[in-house]
Amino acid sequence: ADPQDHKFSLQEVLDSFSRCLSESKQVYLEHYVAGWRGLVKFLNTLGNVFAFISKDAVGKVKILEGYLDGDSRVHYLTVQSMVQHELDNQLVDVSRRGAHPDSGCRTLLRLHRALRWLQLFLERLRVSGQDDSTSVMCADAYNQSLSQHHPWVVRKAAGLAFCVLPGRTAFFEVMNVGPEERVVSVLGEALPLISEVHRITEALYAQHGLLDLP
Ligand SMILES: CCCCCCCCCCCCC/C=C/[C@@H](O)[C@H](COP(=O)(O)O)NC(=O)CCCCCCCCCCCCCCC
Q: Residue 104 — pLDDT band, cuts 50, 70, 90?
């Protein structure tokens, strides 16, 4: 059996993101992608309504896996080296879609924007109380982040999907981290690391003028 094919636990996702940062604050692409692979697995346990989201995320994960396994893999060790390599070799469509619609830079940017949603959502979840609605927390996080990069139809579809999210108790169960107090403490430890990965990536993309890649 596939050793990765065991029951989902959010712990593993959070561990992957914790492993992303090197001592010199480089972001390891391999762990970043592993984190997303885990999130997709989680999303798939939530049901078919989320398939359109999961499909898009899987597509992007596959593109990045292709680079991690490809001939240029030495350049794809970290997000920093990927950016350097793709820019130095004109492998990025900077102002409009062209010869490189699947560059690592633009693909990772989509996940990076979604990571901001995740950060906001998990923080809301962490401080939430018994009666708070996951749908509302999710929608709020989305409206504060990712939604601004999405056209109307996608925002509409996302809004509909959020409505059928499991309630807080069921949601905590699928996370499979243990009792509520443990979920809260695991999130409390992991969130600063996710924020740090997000902050470093954001600064790197800003420095190179890559925050609006088509
Ligand atoms: C828990 C509920 C999960 C809700 C997910 C919230 C995010 C909603 C995103 C809606 C994306 C719709 C799909 C289409 C996206 C693309 O148009 C768009 C642009 O790409 P393009 O430039 O190549 O065209 N793509 C994106 O913005 C990337 C979206 C990636 C979303 C991945 C979301 C994974 C969510 C994982 C949920 C795990 C929650 C764990 C909490 C315990």
A: very high
What is the greatest pairwise CA distance in the chain? 53
Buried b vs exposed e over 58-83: b needs ≥16 C-beta within 10 Å? Answer: bebbebbbebbeeeeeebbbbbbebb
Residues with CB under 6 A from ligand 1: 10, 39, 42-43, 52-53, 56-57, 110, 113-114, 117, 138, 142, 146, 154, 158, 165, 175
Q: Which long-range contacts (CB under 8 A, 24 or more apart) does 50-54 make?
A: 50/161, 52/157, 52/161, 53/158, 53/161
Predicted local confidence at residue 1, as pLDDT: 46
Fold for domain 10-90+103-208?
A: Glycolipid transfer protein, GLTP (1.10.3520)
ipTM: 0.97
Closest by alpha carbon to 67, among 97, 40, 32, 96? 32
Please state, as a whole number, how many other Cβ atoms lie within 10 Å of the Cβ of residue 188.
Answer: 13
What's the CA gap between 84 and 207, in Å, rounded?
12
The structural domains of the chain, with segments of one domain joined by +, span 10-90+103-208
Percent of the chain with pLDDT over 70: 97
Question: Is the predicted pLDDT of residue 20 greater than 80, yes or no?
Answer: yes
Output the CA 115–ligand 1 centroid distance in Å. 9
Q: Which atom of ligand 1 is nearest to the CA of 174?
A: 42
